[in-house]
Design goal:
InterPro entries: Cyt_P450, Cyt_P450_E_grp-I, Cyt_P450_sf, Cytochrome_P450_fam2. By secondary structure, this protein is mainly α. The protein contains 15 helices and five strands. The longest helix has 32 residues.
């Protein structure tokens, strides 16, 4: 009996060992890199490189790999998902300028599919739908003031409200985080373009939406979100901050839905007031669902406009404050140029820009050093191609781009 039990135990162990070896070999063969594929750190079977990367500051880790180890192009694997990373101005220019048409599409993203409840919007759609909605958004927003004097007036009015509230908070003599103030002001500019109105800073629903949006954007860069991208079938059943991410976006959709309902009630096709009105009018005139002029896609496009226009600008303003506080001598020179060109009796305007080269240069350097979007959105190749002498297969491997922290020439004095 003991011998039989021992043999049974050995058989089970042998089977398990065979199974593990078999799965590892099959995973290797299935994920074997094609010839002349970009190099990268060793990836574990099934798991990839999730343990040998800096999850807190991945952009810095990627920059070091690209600039110091792999000559600006390398490959990483998360779970079974492979990604090619490129760093440096020349390599990014090669992909986005010289091969722009080949790298225009976005890859499939389980996270985005869950957030958007499908494909669409301005950031994750591809092909003709993306081109059509990009053109529609740009032309519509321009019609309502984007890049024109009318929007500049709205920005100046919002800035006046912002500075008044900031002065009031200063008089209290207590420290405060200006991020919420920036978020309010910046988001209200987007609201005027999309909803045709601004919201009071004391509006509870508006403040709640901004809170959810800031938290959601932060969580998209978390380890939980990365794990969901790599193992969606497993992660959707597990607790974690990725669930908070999804619930936040649901709450934002609810805010958008309330404004959409109001627009549908008040819609006058002969007198569109904003982006949402124009989208609804286009929806009525479009008889082809594949064009994407549906209510579901209006939610997605509106969310994209808020995410792109609010968080990035707010973050840029915060970095501006940080650097000007850290370098008071730079702050003094900027202030001197403002006093000389603008004075204290009026607000600045875009017409002042050519006369303020130092301030202009400082703003550009803040944007570079602040690294507002440290990693560009992933792209995929439409066709097999080469970058930096390495082979990039079509569609399968997303391409991530990074360039801002690469040292560039910056002339302090002009």
């Amino acid at each position: 009996m003991e011998t039989l039990a021992l043999l049974t135990c050995l058989d089970v162990k042998g089977f398990l060992l065979f199974l593990v070896v078999f799965l590892v070999v099959m995973d290797y063969l299935k994920n074997k890199n094609p010839p002349n594929y970009p190099p990268g750190p060793f990836a574990l079977p099934f798991l990839g490189n999730i343990f040998n990367r800096d999850s807190r500051q991945p952009h810095i880790y990627f920059t070091k790999l690209g600039n110091k180890t792999y000559n600006n192009i390398f490959a990483l694997q998360t779970g079974r998902n492979k990604m090619v990373f490129i760093t440096g101005y020349k390599m990014v220019k090669e992909a986005l300028v010289n091969q722009a048409e080949n790298f225009v599409d976005r890859p499939y993203s389980p996270l985005a599919m869950r957030i958007y409840s499908g494909n669409g919007g301005l950031f994750v759609s591809n092909g003709e739908m993306w081109k059509k909605h990009r053109r529609f958004a740009l032309s519509t927003l321009r019609n309502f003031g984007l890049g024109r004097k009318t929007l500049e007036v709205a920005i100046c009015e919002e800035t006046t409200r912002l500075t008044k509230l900031a002065k009031l908070l200063f008089t209290l003599g207590e420290a405060f985080d200006p991020a919420a103030l920036f978020n309010n002001a910046v988001s209200n500019i987007i609201c005027q373009l999309v909803f045709g109105q601004r919201f009071d800073y004391a509006d509870h629903n508006f403040q709640l939406m901004l809170k959810y949006l800031s938290e959601a954007v932060y969580l998209e860069g978390s380890v939980w979100a990365q794990l969901y991208e790599a193992f969606p079938a497993i992660m959707k059943h597990l607790p974690g901050s990725h669930n908070t991410l999804f619930s936040n976006y649901k709450a934002i959709y609810k805010f958008i839905g309330k404004n959409l309902a109001k627009h549908k009630e008040e819609l006058d096709p002969s007198n569109p007031r904003d982006y949402m009105d124009c989208f609804l009018i286009e929806k009525e005139n479009s008889h082809n669902p594949s064009e994407g002029f549906t209510e579901e896609n209006l939610f997605r496009c509106t969310l994209d406009l808020f995410a792109a226009g609010t968080e990035t600008t707010t973050t840029a303003l915060r970095w501006g404050f940080i650097y000007l506080i850290k370098y008071p001598q730079i702050q003094d020179k900027v202030q001197a140029e403002i006093d000389k060109v603008i004075g204290s009796s009026r607000q600045p305007c875009m017409a002042d820009r050519p006369n303020m080269p130092y301030t202009d240069a400082v703003i550009h350097e803040i944007l570079r050093k602040g690294d507002i979007v440290p990693l560009n959105g992933p792209r995929v190749a439409k066709n097999d191609t080469t970058l930096g002498g390495y082979f990039i297969p079509k569609v399968s491997e997303p391409l991530k781009l990074r360039v801002h922290r690469k040292s560039l020439k910056y002339v302090e004095e002009r």
